[in-house]
Amino acid sequence: MLLVALVGQAQDGHFLPGQLAVLRTGNGAVDPQLKQAPVFIDQFDPAAVNTAPTYTVAIPTNGPDTLFFNAHAATEGVLTRSANHRLLVFAGYGGVNLLEKKGTPSLLEIPRGFATVDAAGTVHTFLYKAHDLSEKVNPRGAATDGTNNFWAAGNAGGTLYYNSTNGAGTLQFEPFQNSRAAKIIGDVLYITLNGPDGIATDEPAGIYRFVDKAGSLLPLPRQKDAVIDLVVPATAPYTKIVGLDLNPDKNIAYLSDTVAGIQKYTRTGNAWKLAYNIAIPQNIPAPLNHATGCFGLVVDFSGVAPVIFATTTEGYGRTVNSNRVVRIVDTSSAAVVTTVAQCPSVSMAYRGIDFTPEFGNSSASKP
User: Cα Rg for the chain, rounded, in angstroms?
Assistant: First the structure.
């Protein structure tokens, strides 16, 4: 069941600190309806307007170290930066050549895995689980501490912990049968639950963390019997959520909704309250548009006003494509939405987003 692979792929140049890293699917030639496409990570200047990427890392597309995700799926392609800021990580399918097996990847006998990318553009691919014919497991998002510990979000038992060196196997968190995104913030793992996904387990949409049976916080859980703890409940109708971020004081939270845009929540005492929703102006005519919200999300809390960066869910036909990376300086619900980058093709899409990795030691490697 356990497969581990490592690939070193260095490219000219490297990531610059303080920039945006955006997970892109497609090269402009592969139709996203095929549900398998090449994957790239593009670097953008966060202060730019309608700009092109300044650096790109291509994820391998053939051989045992391939990793890709289903660009046609509305849930896959979340990108996060490691807790030590040294790596980018995303989840997907690997171990086979791209388009070697046509069809929906979650239904095929393709291993699930993670890819990490460091500041030098080196890609490490870890395959953690073979396909189980009894389940349709969609790998959606991933998080890592940068030291060989990984946590994943997904459906059908796809919320899990994995260590690439200890040989203990993949540990699934039973309380989370479905989840959307995983992110480590302040050395605590947070998971988002989408409203429709929560119906199966009778849990509300929102941001969760893990605790033990006594209610004590498990910052980075590694126990099968860990219990989920709702931190920020999502307010209806904003329950089709994916991405999340929290400020260092944990009293401001943001969620991305694939239909509505970006929601801001604030905490007073122990109570969280929806402050407002920020809607996203659309570039695609409504009759042709796929969706009107956001998917990937990261926030810069270093200034007076938080600066939100997100990827939109617009697109032609039945999928996300020709979408955008947007910037919002959060001054109010009427804050201006600025386009940082426009995806140049209907066969390409921007998905996950975070800040670029920093140079330094990281022990996420093949044992």
Answer: 19
Q: Is 287 helix (H, G, I), strand (E, B) or coil?
A: helix
Question: Is 10 a member of any domain?
Answer: no
CB 253 within 8 A of CB 245: yes
Confidence of residue 5 (pLDDT cuts 50, 70, 90): very low
Count of the separate structural domains present in the chain? 1
Residue in 304, 195, 185 with CA at minimum distance from that of residue 253: 185
> CATH number for the domain including 299?
2.120.10.30
Could you tell me the residue range of the domain that residue 68 belongs to?
A: 20-355
Residue 1 has pLDDT above 60, yes or no: no
* pLDDT 10s digits, 86-117: 999 999 999 889 888 888 898 888 899 999 99
User: Among 188, 203, 199, 174, which Cα is nearest to 145's?
Assistant: 188
- Angle at Cα 306 formed by Cα 300 and Cα 310, nearest 5°? 60
Closest listed residue to residue 88, CA positions, set 247, 339, 298, 262: 298
